[in-house]
Structure formats: structure tokens, C-alpha cells
Design goal:
Blueprint lengths: L6 E11 L6 E11 L2 H16 L6 E9 L7 H8 L7
Antiparallel strand pairs: 1-2, 1-3
Length: about 90
């Protein structure tokens, strides 16, 4: 697994939030680290479901694109890119 590199993807979409019982599709943009776009989408479904109690049918993915880690709006993603890792010997 030495040749596998984690990439950063920006996932854009809309989600059906209902904080006051009026259903409204609201846009979202989330940056995630994944090996391929399908894994990035799965991560978004998982995160949105656990944080906001949304079902997959209430989340519509519009666009997934690979971005440079420095472009991410999340500090932890930018800092993970600089992390060199551990070595087990």
C-alpha cells in the first residue's frame, strides 16, 4: 500500500433539513479525504446521517471534484497533508 495516496475531494449538494417542520432543500459543501470519489460520497452520507439524522434519500449529491489540500476550508484537512506519518520497524 505504499503507492496509494489519499486525496481531498470537495462534495457539493443539497440536503433536506427540517429544523422547524418546514422542509427546505439547503445547499452544503463538505471537504473530505478519500482514496476515490465513491468513498468521498459514502463519507458524506455517513457524516450527514450521523450529525443531522438524515436518511440517504434526503441528501442529493450534485458535484464531486478533487481539490488541492491547501484549498480546503477545514484546518484539520490542511494539517493532515503535512503529517509525515509513523514508521514501524
Amino acid at each position: 500500500m505504499s503507492g496509494v495516496r489519499v486525496k481531498v475531494y470537495r462534495v457539493e449538494g443539497v440536503a433536506l433539513f427540517s429544523p422547524d417542520k418546514t422542509r427546505k432543500w439547503q445547499p452544503f459543501i463538505i471537504d473530505v479525504r478519500a482514496l476515490k470519489p465513491a468513498e468521498a460520497i459514502e463519507k458524506v452520507y455517513s457524516d450527514m446521517g450521523s450529525r443531522h439524522k438524515l436518511k440517504r434519500g434526503h441528501i442529493k449529491i450534485i458535484n464531486v471534484k478533487e481539490i488541492n489540500p491547501e484549498e480546503s476550508k477545514y484546518k484539520y484537512i490542511r494539517s493532515l497533508e503535512k503529517f509525515t506519518g509513523w514508521s514501524i520497524e
